Amino acid sequence: GALWMCIVLNPHCKLEQKASWLKQLKKWNSVDVCPWEDGNHGNELPNLTNALPQSANANQENMGQCKSLEYQHLPAHKFLEEGESYLTLAVEVALIGLGQQRVMPDGLYAQEKVCRNEEQLLSKLQEIELDDTLVKIFRKQAVFLLEAGPYSGLGEVIHRESVPMHTFAQYFFTPLLPHDAELAYKTALRAMRLLVLESAAPSGDMSRPHHIASVVPNRYPRWFTLSHIESQQCELASTMLTAAKGDVRRLETVLESIQKNIHSSSHIFKLAQDAFKIATLMDSLPDITLLKVSLELGLQTVLTAALSLPSSQYPVLHKL
After folding, report:
1. CB-based contact 136:77 (threshold 8 Å)
2. How far is CA 155 from CA 159, 272, 287, in A?
3. Is the separation of the CB atoms in 41 and 20 below 8 Å?
4. Which of 60, 93, 258, 306 has an alpha carbon within 20 to 30 A of 289's alpha carbon?
5. In the chain, how long is the greatest CA-to-CA distance?
6. 139 has pLDDT over 90
7. What residues contact 44, with CB distance under 8 A and at least 6 apart?
């Protein structure tokens, strides 16, 4: 019922589509057997997620609409209206589900399941060869998620314990980059946040009433998968550093994001190493801006380590 409400209230659907859905719902309401229990009824509503490549067979529980749209009998590339196919619809539904803001559940098993389900669905999506139609879907969904407010994991303001979007944004970043670099970086930079480790007030425009506030109490929630999440955050940052080589403005923006959002000294040190390797990768002259990024991150690593020293070591640090 909730799924159908979301579909029917879609403001972008045509009146004839809504009329067709109403007719179908009335038909199903008149039968005694649930359509999913009887293959002779209801096969007009496919499982769109199964229109994706079949090698991964991921369990999509806790992934919003993705679990409910079951497709068994219709070919993935069968075309619908206006050039749409079940494959394109499946990709769009998967992106909608992955981009929804959701609070990290309690407990080790539940948190591991969130990460596992996301990675399984992304792995399935990565098997698809992107064409112009799918790239358009990526651009549309990226813009929508950035502007969608509290229901989006990429909204301007999110709950402190919202599930991070690092892996999802990295999947978005690569196909968007050659077509709309500005949108690709905007999406990835927005996803770099890890508010669960923040102790300051939430960022964003708090004067806009349709946004939810990130309440930041003086405690860290028990995120058992935090080390894995921080690794994903580091991978996203490294991907942006690699792509931004030669672009001074973008490198400075990525550096600022790293310094603001990454709290692990080991990951900052890794990014310093990555920046140095990327800067000196070719036989030509090294990228001076990337070398500066590497130096700044290296100094930040030293400073972070120094701040963790016991107070008895401060005089030694002062001499250094």
Report:
1. no
2. 10, 29, 34
3. no
4. 306
5. 84
6. yes
7. 24
Q: Which residues of 11-22 are buried (b: 16+ CB within 10 A; e: fewer)?
A: eeeeeeeeeebe
Residues 6+ apart with CB under 8 A from 182: none
For the chain, the straight-line distance linking the first and the last C-alpha, in angstroms and rounded, comes to 66
| Spatial distance between the Cα atoms of 171 and 271, rounded to a whole number of angstroms | 19
Q: Tokens for 224? A: 């058992």
**Phi-psi category of 310—alpha, beta or left, where left has phi over 0 and alpha has psi -120 to 50?**
beta
User: Distances from the Cα of 131 to the Cαs of 21, 36, 54, 104, in angstroms?
Assistant: 29, 33, 19, 33
Nearest by Cα to 267 from 299, 304, 231, 305:
231
Sign, CA dihedral 62-68-72-78, equals: negative
User: Whole-model pTM?
Assistant: 0.71
pLDDT digits over 230-289, tens only? 999 999 999 999 999 999 999 999 999 999 999 999 999 999 999 999 998 876 788 999
Per the model's pLDDT, the better-predicted residue between 129 and 317 turns out to be: 129
Q: At a CB cut-off of 8 Å and minimum separation 6, what does 149 contact?
A: 155, 156, 210, 211
Helix H or strand E encompassing 293: helix 288-307
